[in-house]
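Quick check before the chapter quiz. The format below is the same one you will see on the exam, so make sure you can read both the input and the output lines.
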Amino acid sequence: MNVFNYPQPFTLENGVVLPELQIAYHTYGKLNADGSNVVWVCHALTANSDCVDWWKGLIGPSCLIDPEEYFIVCANILGSCYGTTGPTSINPKTGAPYYSDFPTVTIRDMVKAHILLREALGIEKIGLLMGGSMGGYQVLEWCMMEPRRIEKSFLIATSPSESAWGVAVHTAQRLAIEADNTWRNHDAHAGAQGLKAARAIGMLTYRNYGIFQDTQTDPDPEKIDHFRASSYIQYQGEKLAKRFNAFSYWLLTKSMDSHHLARGRGGDLISALNTIQQPTLIIGIDSDILCPLAEQRFMAEHIPHASLIEIGSSYGHDGFIIEAKQITEHLSHWLKRC
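Here is the expected output.
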């Protein structure tokens, strides 16, 4: 992991100023002589900048997005707890971590930070900008904020604005965190029990009825407690609480709620999407209940140079990480055509 330090004030969309900024990032491969081989990967909610680790089968040696061919960059998002400035960072004004005092950030703030890193790395053009879920939110914003820098984009399991359904899910998750009586403590482990509950809520939207029935149904009809599905949900909550932070989770769900491409751009999503001129591949997943196919179809209809592929998967929203073989096939064909 690398760290870029920006020792100057960074103004957020809401007007709050961070005294300085730190961005954690990974790069793989080498920038070629004409700078034409950049692939920038934007990550989702609880991921980090090591995209070779979390997007296995699609990015990495011998994969479609291969560091032998591409210069691959992934930066940890603003507000996260994986090295970029966020709630667990030290506030230089107080000498203590921000915790719950960290200001609200938006997807645009995240992209603004990415742009600072792009400039520091000497990248003039991004040949392919790609991301799924919340990562797709960043891709869409970046295509609008720096249209001449982005040559092609790839979006999967994402949308041009946060849906009412998404906002409701995130609100339920934040209520779970807020119900933990340690939530406001200025401590790195504050809100851990609430975070487990928030993750449990999230898992119900990342997967779906079918996959839970297939993988978590108990074979013993005599059982009256300790069900497999319950153990699985508890395990997922505990797993996240060990590697993530309730302050960042609460904050980043707020950031997702802020996502609306037409905010400050006339208010009309269709008009905003019409301005995206990059060739764009959009993949939707037929079992996704968090960012359903209707959202990808809407984007494909209104982004002028978009292609839409609908893939089958039993894994719901998480299919954007799991279905690497299908994604590779469709993205490879599209890249050859472009």
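If your answer matched, good. The first strand starts at residue 2 and ends at 6.
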